[in-house]
Design brief:
The structure holds 2 protein chains of 2 kinds. Chain A is of the alpha/beta class. Helices cover about 20% and strands about 30% of the residues of chain A. Chain A has one domain: 2-Layer Sandwich (Beta Polymerase, domain 2). Chain A contains 3 helices and 6 strands. In chain A, β5 (about 65), α2 and β6 form a beta-alpha-beta unit. Chain A starts with a strand and ends in a 12-residue tail after the last helix. In chain A, about 40% of the residues are buried. Chain B is α+β, with helices and mostly antiparallel strands. Chain B is built from 13 helices and 8 strands. Chain B has helices at about 55-60, 70-85, 90-115, 120-140, 160-180, 185-190, 190-195, 205-210, 215-220, 250-270, 320-335, 340-345, 355; strands spanning about 5-10, 20-25, 30-35, 150, 155, 290-295, 300-310, 315-320. The longest helix of chain B has 29 residues, at about 90-115. The chains are: A alpha/beta, B alpha+beta. Chains A and B meet through β2 and α2 of A and β6, β7, β8 and α11 of B.
């Protein structure tokens, strides 16, 4: 089964989500993937009767993305997590922890951003692809 | 009337998990509940940068102790899809056996904690006594009581022999009998009903709106269980989701109680149909692309998203655990409750914050 994520735009996200919700789709979660310095994919996962639909929204850390919590309140937790881990911001977030859902004041600003700490990623070369048990 | 904000948790005599709630109360009545997390966040998803895709099996097993095997199974299924390999039939049946044993001991653990939260200590001890039999099965078959560590990408790395099959079947007879003996107490006792009936109600519409998962979703009348997807050997087994319609704490407890007995039946079915054959296929190559996998944990649906780049390290691993999905529903379950009911209702979603924060 191949993974297909339909592209959506920031302008249409909430309107399209309203239509999806009206069709009975449940919000499952959303995933943030860093694609380059300051560039991210926001992947939205929905479900109806065990069938999943995935959407992909291109986002940057230079401007706030629309919050899906205005349509699906359940999205507030996932969006707050992304704010903590990747430093993105969401406009009109229903419950906004201001980047402090998990993080303390002294914590790194974007601990999940790979491109800002690339030196860490290549330090461990343990295991191989055919059974690193 | 003046309102107050009461900090509830992360340390609380009843709560086994470090979740914090800011409760806005008027006298003893909760008006608003706002959850807060961050006490056990480990950033395990980020270890994909330092551990290769095979080593990550051991990492995801440690997302949660109680459902460790099921985390690893879900992760392996996602990678197997990307590598276009299929675990052998025997491995799929063994995965069902160990995952349902995990569900039994998780539900018994929770039912015990739930009883303890209501001050019903003898029931708590009875349930945990039964649970020990399942932990003994885990130890006898996998060498460990909790983190059984049986999954590899491509199958499993431990087998169950005929003597162990007989031992499991014998133990399950006792587990089933002893669990059934507690049904009258657990589901009909006056005190239990007084503390749970009509408390923390989540309607079917609210459950869907707020993205609830697992027994929390099914306790509100939604017949959705990821085992219906037919992953591993579930496609060969007789299975229907357990559903209750009350939407309250009692309904969620009843779902878990009935699922405990259902899991006993599923283990028996899997043991009866256990095919001969290999335990694993070789996982060759380096995955590229994206995939998701979903399975049913004791607390509900877990989703794994994986992005791979053709190297032995994954680009991104994202785990959405069921408690993560069941925290937003707390914002509608708690308002209107008396303060004394809050711990029991919070517990009714079976919160696992270790899972949630990863």
């Amino acid at each position: 089964m191949s993974f297909i994520a339909t592209p959506v735009t920031a302008n249409n996200l909430c309107k399209d989500a309203q239509a999806l919700k009206a069709r009975g789709f449940r919000f499952v979660t959303m995933t943030c993937v860093e694609t380059g310095p300051g560039e991210f994919d926001l992947i939205y996962h929905f479900d109806k009767d065990l069938d999943m639909v995935h959407w992909r929204l291109a986002a940057t850390d230079r401007e706030a993305s629309p919050s899906l919590s205005t349509v699906y309140l359940a999205a507030f937790l996932a969006e707050n997590e992304i704010q903590d881990q990747f430093g993105l911001r969401f406009a009109d977030l229903a419950i906004d922890y201001q980047g402090k859902l998990y993080l303390d004041e002294e914590a790194g600003a974007t601990p999940f951003c790979r491109f800002s700490r690339a030196s860490i990623t290549q330090t461990d070369s343990g295991g191989d692809t055919e059974g690193g048990q | 009337m003046k309102t107050s904000i009461l900090p509830f948790g992360p340390q609380h005599p009843v709560l086994p998990e470090p979740i914090h709630l800011s409760l806005t109360i008027e006298n003893e009545t909760v008006l608003e509940a706002r959850p807060a997390l961050g006490y056990v966040h480990r950033g395990l998803e980020n270890l994909v940068a330092a551990r290769d895709m095979h080593q990550m099996v051991q990492v995801v097993e440690r997302v949660c102790g109680i459902c460790s095997m099921i985390h690893a199974m879900c992760y392996c299924q996602a990678l197997e899809e990307m590598l276009d390999i299929q675990a052998p039939p025997r491995a799929e049946y063994l995965r069902v056996i160990w995952s349902e044993l995990h569900r039994i001991h998780s539900h018994l653990l929770w039912l015990g904690l739930f009883a303890d939260a209501m001050g019903f200590e003898s029931l708590f001890m009875q349930l945990w006594k039964i649970r020990e039999r399942v932990m003994d099965i885990n130890e006898a078959t996998a060498g460990n009581r909790v983190i059984v560590s049986v999954n590899v990408v491509g199958g499993v790395r431990r087998d169950i022999d005929e003597d162990q099959v007989a031992m499991i079947e014998k133990e399950l007879v006792t587990v089933e009998r002893e669990v059934k003996q507690l049904s009258l107490t657990l589901l009909t006792d006056f005190t239990v009903k007084k503390r749970t009936k009509g408390k923390g109600v989540l309607t079917r519409e609210q459950a869907l709106e707020l993205g609830a998962a697992g027994p929390t979703l099914r306790g509100s009348g939604v017949a959705q269980d990821m085992r219906q997807l037919g992953y591993a050997a579930f496609k060969d087994l007789d299975f229907e989701p357990v559903v209750e319609t009350g939407g309250d704490s009692w309904a969620r407890a009843a779902v878990r109680f009935k699922e405990t007995l259902q899991s006993v039946d599923l283990v028996r079915q899997a043991l009866a149909g256990l095919p001969q054959g290999d335990l694993a296929v070789k996982a060759k190559g380096k995955p590229e692309g994206e995939a998701t996998a979903r399975v049913e944990q004791p607390r509900g649906e877990v989703l794994y998203y994986i992005k791979a780049n053709g190297t032995k390290h994954l680009d991104r691993l994202r785990i959405r655990t069921p408690t993560f999905a069941n925290i937003p529903p707390l914002t509608v379950m708690l308002p209107g409750l008396e303060l004394a009911d809050v711990p029991v209702v919070v517990l009714s979603i079976d919160p696992c914050i270790s899972c949630t924060e990863r």
